[in-house]
Each structure stands twice: as structure tokens, then as C-alpha cells.
Amino acid sequence: MTDWTSRSAAALGRGIGSGEIDPVALTQAFLDRIAAHPLRDRIYARLTPDRALAEAEAAQRRAKLGRRLSPLDGVPVSWKDLFDTAGVATEAGSALLKGRVPEADAPVLRTATAMGLVCLGKTHMSELAFSGLGLNPVTATPPSVNDPEAVAGGSSSGAAASVAFGLAAAAVGSDTGGSVRIPSVWNDLVGLKTTSGRISIEGAVPLAARFDTVGPLCRTVEDAALMLAALEGRAAPDLQGASLKGVRFASLSNVVMDDIRDAPRAAYCSALDRLADAGAEIVPLTVPELEIPMGDAGILFTTEAWATWGDLISRHGEVMFPPIRARFESGKAFGGADYLAAWERMMGARAAWAQATAGFDAVLCPTAPILPPKIDKLMEQGEYYVTANLLALRNTRVANVMGLCATSLPTGVASCGVSVMCAPMAEDRLLRLSAAAETALS
């Protein structure tokens, strides 16, 4: 049998549409690969094989009748373990939620199911989604595909690993400060952070609701576009003919280049050269107004996180991984006045950002300034853990704090990526630009 598990989601969808691939056989192939994989228990928190095969059988019937629901009808994907699944535990990587079984699917999962996506199961994640590293000794720590002794990136760690190791055609994760893009870059995938409010986060275990977003982790930009369409219940944006001719990119110079390691810096500079060779104009850009809200990000995220989880953590925090608990508890230091002042500063910076970037099609930066750290070193839980976590999320936070949509694209150098950022709700334009950039970088 052909190894379907290495194909893109779009290619699998086309194979189902042409009759080359049977959705039931495809789903069983993924389930068999998962069962045989030595790292499966570090990637999947739990599988939903009965649901997957039932959904695949329905997709099989539709394909035979020529009534497919979407280009990805019958394609198996994984879901981060913070999206509610009816009758299946959703624990968000935390012993605080052990045994939590929702009665209904999250709306985004219902929509995706109505578009024909097949749910393989739930993937491991950083505890309550509050880390960019993906280290989770409470449940499991998924590995980076480039180094099994290193973290996969968080908080959608298992989501990325499920795709990178061929255990799902695509994955659905969430992104509050970089949780789709960090695991994507460290596993050489395409990650899409959507604009806050674009896709409903109802039925998703929250971290900071004003910043939480839903997004796919995929092999290609085409897959990301098709996944976004499936999550929204609409037709996918047209990527045909995407070109960088006449495109004007800003390369962000301040904040994102500080303390960047040699490999990500070199990969980014090489990526800029290839984008320019493909016809793009690239202009260095400094946005001084960005500095203050990036410093305020700790106030904004931790205050919301503590407001949501503080009572439960105060009563049962001993079951948590201590560095994650400490990060939540840091939100106790800020009052309402601190939070509102930080929010006002952020909104002022967003206005300045919009003005500074108005003449560009998108803004570029390295997705992550560091490579995935080693698990053993992070488990020492000292200053290295704190520094690595904050630095991992530093660049991706720009899009969250500025309210943007963004992709992370592989550069061809292992665990090094380039981020493309566009204005709020401009995902279709972002995906066309990313498709053209993907061609230039491949």
C-alpha cells in the first residue's frame, strides 16, 4: 500500500476526490501507524478510533455519491487536548482537569466535522497552554521531529508532533502568545495564527480569552488554507497564481532580533535573500512603540490567566508542574489598574503599528530566536527554563499583542522559520503571500 501518511492534507483530499484513496482505509492507515509508533504515548493523550472510523465511513459514502462536503472531506486530523469532544476527556494537559469529560463538541470541532474532517484523537500540550516550550512532566512531553531529546514547542506540542511524525494529516491547535507557531517552526511545519475573534473559542479550555485563537498546523500553506476554510465552514481562499512580484515586505528590526541565536539569524537572512530574488522588496522597519506593550505582555497574559484559574490553582495547585504554577501565580501581582493601563498602552501601540506598516503588504521576522531546548536541561527548572520560555515566545508575541494574523513558514533549515504578519482579519491575503513565499523558500 502507498504510504499515504506522508502526503499533505490537500493531496489526500484530492486522492479521495479522484477515487484513488478510500477514506476508511486512509483513516485505518493513520490509526495503524499511531499504534505502531514508539513515541505515540508522548504525542497523543487519547485516541478516538470509533469516532474516526464512523466519520470515515460517512466520508466514504459521500465520495462514492459525488457529494463531498469540502476538499478535506475524509482527511484525518488531530485536535489539541483543550478542544471539547463529547464524551471524551478534555484535560488541557493538567491534573487540575483530570477526568473532565464534556457533553458536547466545541463549536469549531462541530464545524470541522460538518466539513468532513475525521477526528483521530487528542494531542498532548503544555499544561493549561501556558508555555511556549511544550515541556509537560505531568502528562507527557512530545519530542521535536528534529531532535527527540528536545521539546517540540508549545503549547500545541503534540499537535505539531502528530503531523511531523506522520500521525495526522494536519492538526488543530490554539495560539495565545505563539502556541501554534513555535511548535510549527521547531518541527518544520506551516502554522497559522488567526485573528483574535475570527474563530469561536467557545468550548476550548481558556488561557487568556482576549488573546486565545484557533489555528492549524500543517505541512503546506495550501493545507493551512484548506484547514482554515474547514474550521470556518466556508470555501478556501484562492492561492492560484500567488506571486511576490511587486510585493513590499517590512523586515522588523527592533525587539525580534535581540539575543537571536546564530542558526535562526542565518536562516532568516537567507530567507530574506530568496524572497528578494523572487521579486519582493524588503525594507528594514523599526517600530519604537512596540517596545512598551511587549514589556507589558506579562501583565496582560498573566492577569487574565490568574483571573480564570486562580481559585482552582489556590486550592489544588500542588498537582501542577511548579514552573507553570509559578507563571500563573505571577498574575496575582497585578491589579485592575495595572491591567487596564497595560491594555491602553497596547491599544496605542496598535494604532502606531498600523500607521507604520500601512505601506507594506506584510511584516517579516524570525519565528523563533532560539532552537528547541533539550528536555533534560529544562527539567532542572531553574533560570534557564524561565529564560528559554520567554525568549521562545518573544517574537511570536508581536502578532498577538498587535492583534494580527500570522503564519510561520519553514526556511529549509531545521527548526528555523520566518513569520509573515498581516493586518487583522486579512487571513486570505496572508495565505496568498505565504503561498508565494513558500515557493520562494522551498
UniProtKB/TrEMBL annotation:
Residues 26-431 form the Amidase domain. The keyword DNA repair does not apply. It comes from Salipiger marinus. Gene3D superfamilies: Amidase signature (AS) domain (3.90.1300.10). This is Aspartyl-tRNA(Asn)/glutamyl-tRNA(Gln) amidotransferase subunit A. It comes from the Bacteria. Keywords: Transferase. Transmembrane segments: none annotated. InterPro entries: Amidase, Amidase_CS, Amidase_dom, AS_sf. The keyword Transferase applies.
